[in-house]
Fold each of these.
Amino acid sequence: MAGYTPGEQPRDGNYIKLNTNENPYPPSPRALAAIRECAADDRLRRYPDPLGTAFRQAASRVLDVDPDAILIGNGSDDILTITTRAFVPEGGTMAAPTPSYILYRTLAQIQGASLEEIPFSDTWQPPSPWPAADANLSVLPNPNSPTGTMVSLSNLKRLACECNGPLIIDEAYADFAEYNALTLLAEHKNVVITRTLSKSYALAGIRFGFAIADPALVREFTKVKDSYNCDMISLAAATAAIEDQAYMREIRRKIIATRERLFQELVHLGFEVLPSQANFLWCRSRKQPVKPLYEELKRRLILVRYMHFEGYGDGLRITVGTDDECDRLLAELRKIV
Amino acid sequence: MAGYTPGEQPRDGNYIKLNTNENPYPPSPRALAAIRECAADDRLRRYPDPLGTAFRQAASRVLDVDPDAILIGNGSDDILTITTRAFVPEGGTMAAPTPSYILYRTLAQIQGASLEEIPFSDTWQPPSPWPAADANLSVLPNPNSPTGTMVSLSNLKRLACECNGPLIIDEAYADFAEYNALTLLAEHKNVVITRTLSKSYALAGIRFGFAIADPALVREFTKVKDSYNCDMISLAAATAAIEDQAYMREIRRKIIATRERLFQELVHLGFEVLPSQANFLWCRSRKQPVKPLYEELKRRLILVRYMHFEGYGDGLRITVGTDDECDRLLAELRKIV
């Protein structure tokens, strides 16, 4: 087993990092204040609240869901690990669309399960009917990575009905999109929605994600998770961040504006770019191989993500940075392309 | 499956908490400064170093081991989960002594494996020969919880030789003991030592633990762990804390002094107390049932841990607090016993 290889995280600060979909803006000042407060007395000698009650209450208010419908996680990777362990037996089957988030394959491998990869349709929708209805677990990211495309709400509902097992809708990037799947939860008890504070809340460094699902499912997940899977500082920062919706909306607005401009410029440069509802753009080219472009950009201290998918092909997944960072990227691309 | 129930963590601050082996002293000021530094700029928008290079280098210097022999974890619970997933197949067998840390049973259950519980000898050593030599994984805490007793180095060596599979020596409390098992690593490639910063470093709130093992094993564990299992703040705090050995030694010295005094007083009150090399004492009584004592102490706002083990019996596990906290406990016990 090879294990999952995350995007490059160079330790020196000289790169323009457009490769791991981090937010180019700082976290909410309220989140940073909450972190400093944790270091102001001796509270860190104590174990954190294993259930993350304060976060669940805050998220419950913001998202208008039952606090008991919320499961806290050490990043949404932890949530995906918990749900995989809860649902998928050794020798079982997971299903996910392709091309998509490459972690799903690793999760299946660690669990001793197989992953059935189901190609998206030409319009980036899951095929109808879903050919893996009997999988122990189906996972669908929405928006999808690396494409930034969205599955429609009606197709999500169809998929939730067709799946005999649970369906995870991985909404890591949903805050950048025009809609999300929260409304499905009331009618579809097999749907688990996962979220993260790594992207829209600019808090990849604290590792915090959560799931929203039927409270009966959340109770089962709670038995599988490490008791203290979230630390006290992450919980405090996440609670303050999700309560600061005004700040999140403001940085999201800037990222979406930059995304639309970057999209136009990349199309102008001759790339085939998919309209994206996430904080990244998926760029392919029929004119030239893109791997050398990735390498040349890296030499010029700009990191983007080169990705290749068996049976589909390759491309560059470019995170939407600040306007300045995107201008630097475009200037270099104009010299190279 | 019932899941693991951690010790009570009341959210109000009125209790004297002697039930979950937290450190009564604050974390190192250097750790707290490192946390504040993380909140001073925008670094938290970035993902953390997945390998925790800075921590591994610091721990390598302090413990005089190869940095590649160190695996970082989100608490030592995460380390135990990672190793269980790496070694134990569904339907496999884990082995651990009894009475011991009750999490091991939950870990086996989540993995769909069985736990073989092997009673300690009268002198709190593992029986010779180890009856579970063919288990997929044997786990031995040293010092043991709830007893605070130690397995001798020669018995640890014997056990490492007898086990055909890997042997985890869970050293969560080793900093309070007179020796540890680090010297075994050179000769016994199947030994994995786990440590935590929750106890001796007074950082239960940050969730940080690590393993020390053969670098070839650490490479395999790294494939199983969540890529970003440790967050940036915990890594920074853990690195600063382990570098501040003078501070750790000072609070350890105070805790050991209080432990010895508390031991004498509890014996004086008529309890059967085992000499402990950890930061807690295991108290039993032939004169009266101890569960009502736990309940009465709780009514008087002092939390200790009542534990019952099938085939062995029950007792109170009392964390060593500050001198003041222990005096309060003793004063109440004198009224109740």
Amino acid sequence: MSGGQPDLLRSRAALSRLFEPSDNVGLALVAAAGPVDALRVATGSLRAGNALIREVTEELAGAGISGRGSSLAEALARWAPRVPDLAPDRDLATISRAGGELLTPEDPRWPEALRDLGLGMPLCLWARGDLNQGMPALGRTAAVVGSRDSTGYGASVAGDLAAGLVVQGWSVVSGGAYGIDAQAHRAALAVGGGAGAAPTIAVMACGADRYYPAGNEDLLREVVRRGILMSEVPPGSSPTRWRFLQRNRIIAALSAVTVVVEARWRSGALNTAHHAAALGREVGAVPGSVYSANSAGCHRLLRDGSAVCVTDAAEIIELAGPIGASADSAEAAHQEPAAVHDGLTIEDLLLLDALPLRSGSPVEKLASVAGLSVPAVRAGLARLELENLAVRDGLQLWKRSRR
Amino acid sequence: MSGGQPDLLRSRAALSRLFEPSDNVGLALVAAAGPVDALRVATGSLRAGNALIREVTEELAGAGISGRGSSLAEALARWAPRVPDLAPDRDLATISRAGGELLTPEDPRWPEALRDLGLGMPLCLWARGDLNQGMPALGRTAAVVGSRDSTGYGASVAGDLAAGLVVQGWSVVSGGAYGIDAQAHRAALAVGGGAGAAPTIAVMACGADRYYPAGNEDLLREVVRRGILMSEVPPGSSPTRWRFLQRNRIIAALSAVTVVVEARWRSGALNTAHHAAALGREVGAVPGSVYSANSAGCHRLLRDGSAVCVTDAAEIIELAGPIGASADSAEAAHQEPAAVHDGLTIEDLLLLDALPLRSGSPVEKLASVAGLSVPAVRAGLARLELENLAVRDGLQLWKRSRR
């Protein structure tokens, strides 16, 4: 092989087929030796020297990883069965035919947010869509995730949140699954697209050339056309449970906030939320009926303090950014007609409640009823009259104004 | 007047008519001089000496109170108009005719929890119901409060929570209002009563001889009959906004946990929640639809961290007591059918997902698909076969078991 970028690309392509996602030994090997030599070691064409083995061990120790399967020897044994299947040029051709590319950490378009995964950062991303203009700015992405068997309520909220985020220039990340994920992608596409960041990003657990689940094919094609679809596993890969679980860490890492819209007590969406929390990302959960099993997981997150309650897109954006800016907007969103007593002092409130509705009372009576001194009542009546809350009813009598 | 209990009772009865709830100067005067002399000073029959004035000032400073209306001179001026109306014997006779009593802090039945209000502790409680057996044990009371214009959802949750609490031997405190309050009282009465603590306690903003609102008269009569109805304001008093707000501090102080079931963005129930938080009591909020204005106040409490998400009575009880005890019960309440892969190691999960459903694969193929070494596949197949998750399909071929 000759040096330079093409080699890096081909090596990472091959390694992404050799290693399962989050294969820590593999990732430590890449960190220690670089992708090109890591591939040569992993495939057995270069023997790992003691220095390299020590470096890999240190990388793993630095990431706090030990235990079964975490020695280089064990890892070589599990990589060996896949070596005959490696065909990086074929995989690169496949993604290219699908209109996509292989993004690597060496690429300036690589999402910087993924670096927070440390050793767990994906080796590469097989990606389709507008990777040049579409990659969202750091901190303007939110994951909207949840149950596949969503309720009408959950689907509706997912749609409203996603649409609200895209209207504010945010990108909506999700997993392309049925239910909440699909609704989030769909609503994001309905509102946005065209210039600027992709309205939505689907992070898949299968190869980026596949449409899984089949029922979402049309939707996922539209995500490719106007958003971004990506996966860390190479073209043709099946979605396995392990890949689903690991895929969730990418969704969490890409997103400034991860919002769980609906989730059962046990749900993959909670796994995404925990990844987000572990990364120090903000986590939001949408409240729902206490009678809905599909909200039980959200309530669990709220209850144990793992998530903040979010009810609209503005609250999601507020979670990501400096608080305070949106406190006013929250007040504005909940405008209620001002009550007549808004802004009154305690004394004037006591006096207002002491004023009769029908026939007026004298000042002395008002003082007794309100529990105020006579001078306080006189001063208060003057203020309430100005506010059109009290009116005279005869010479020295006062009553409530009928406004 | 002669000394002793009757004087204390009469004096507190009179003072409760002279002072509005939480009249800090009045309460400081009682703290400094005792109820009997406080009444004499407050009614002008005893002149406050410099020593007493200093003591009152110190009481107020100790409670962090200053500003307008907080000098004894100002207070005397606001009390004066009510002096002619004082008739403690008449008030005591009225509560007695209604089958009630005046409870004072000197009474062994006085709810100890109220002492946490410090200077703001009520002077006395005009109370009806079974005050001898019915007063609940400290820490086994929960306030269930919320909007008057509750939705069907809110009413249903309030009822379920109250019933669940009473079944566990708890007392449900509320404010006797329409909506959530009424539903909480009603459900508590439907489940409990008879021996032991009162199933429910209504803390009123009007006199304990009155039924307010009128539409709740039957319910409130039943609360008197099988629970406890109480108020810090004397018989015949009207419910004013000030008294409603101050009444809320009593609800909060009586309750180990205050739960807001439904509340608009601005709601009196939030005031009760803030009182509870200020007292260091636990606050719970019930989640609901993000589209319901009646849940916006609950979500606000959840969002700003003022309340913990609660969805059933067990979670309320858990809030009050040592956590952990109920973590198991929460798991139990959300039992879901175990998935086939529950408890599998990552390696076995990878292998399980690699096993074909129809025609079997050889070990080498499985190793490549799963990303495991050949020995790891052999060991894993043995385990999965034992678990009835893998079966042989011919001599050296394996597939998924159709269980």
